[in-house]
Sequence to fold (272 residues):
Amino acid sequence: MNQSLPAIDVADMTAVYHEQPVLWDVDLQVPPGVLMAIVGPNGAVKTTLIKCILGLIKPVAGKLLIQGKTYKDARESVAYVPQRGSVDWDFPTNVLDVVEMGRYGALGWLKRPGKNERDAAMRALDKVGMASFANRQISQLSGGQQQRVFLARALAQDADIYLMDEPFQGVDATTERAIIELLRELRAAGKTVVAVHHDPVTVPEYFDWVTLLNVRKIASGPVDDVFTDENLRLTYGGVVAFVNHPGNGNGIANGGNGHRAEPDARSTETAA
Fold:
């Protein structure tokens, strides 16, 4: 990865849904080697940003560069972990086959995966604690196990940039801890991880960079600088409550009071 260029560079991006803007004039630069959360109200705007970066949704305006290249030229350096709920888990395939799919970009579509690809898939499964499930049908796995399999598929791709849509959604506490340790290992290896994240309470503990999004970008930068109660109020459009969280450290940047911000249930939500 070229450390002198942003891992992701979004300029003036606007996307619409049913003729209504869901992303409006978003500028965003993600530096290489960070673990970044995308946080905002319930709705599709956070996922929309990820899908625009991946080319799955075509914005009506704006430019995107991945490590200084168009996504088409840089796609092999990007791995994607979709929302678990968006996947057809009844598809008749086993765990190892799913993880091997992460190698197809490097292999090419005309070649069948061989021993090297199988070995890489098994190493990735071992990394997420799922090697013993290699021959299990994916429909027979729990939600947390399914999420680990999709993480393994991304790991097998050996990308520079990992885009993840709600990687902690619907998993138990043990799996959540395992996932965050894995993400930290990726960051330590110089990888860039961008994750749509639903729980503002854990942002200061899990991430070092955050983007606050509500149709427009509210703020983006190091957690210690931008994860403030004022920015959270601007993001969620309502009252922000504070909750204690064990092992919190200094809490949010502007308070240092041992509390973290959580959107109040009365907050205005933006659906997309």
